[in-house]
Amino acid sequence: MKIPPVPFTVTDWDAVPATEHPGTTGMATWRVIVIGDIRIRQVEYSAGYLADHWCDRGHILYVLEGEMVSELKTGEKTVMTAGMSYHVSDFGDAAHRSSTETGAKLFIVD
To answer: Which residues pair with residue 85 across a beta bridge?
Structure first.
């Protein structure tokens, strides 16, 4: 990851406009900042959320609150709780998707 030249910037995530992204079930609410090719997001999954797609994009994901399951298309599942993170490469690992029974709040860089 190469961060382009930008001034020191503080983000008030509550002031970043939210967009809703329906899952197969539930809803994901995204707050997004884009710097060059880098997307920085605060994402909240509603209770009962299941992603509507398998993702091949690389991410660094940190769970701020709640609990989610990260599932690989190969069938492996990992329960992620607040304070845990994962990183996955672009098209280098099995595709993945997220779900949560109770809801979760995440910080994602990709």
So the answer is: 62
Residues forming beta bridges with residue 64, ordered by sequence position: none
| Residue type at 16 in one-letter notation | V
Helix (H, G, I), strand (E, B) or coil at 30: strand
Q: Please give the Cα distance from 59 to 41 (Å, whole number).
A: 11
Low-confidence ranges of the chain (pLDDT < 50): none
From CA 64, how far away is CA 90, in angstroms rounded? 23
For the chain, give the longest Cα–Cα distance.
43
Global confidence as pTM: 0.92
- Report the alpha-carbon distance of residue 56 to residue 65 in Å, rounded: 24
What is the model's pLDDT at position 91? 80
Per-residue confidence (pLDDT) for residue 24, from 0 to 100:
98
Alpha-carbon span 55 to 61, nearest angstrom: 13
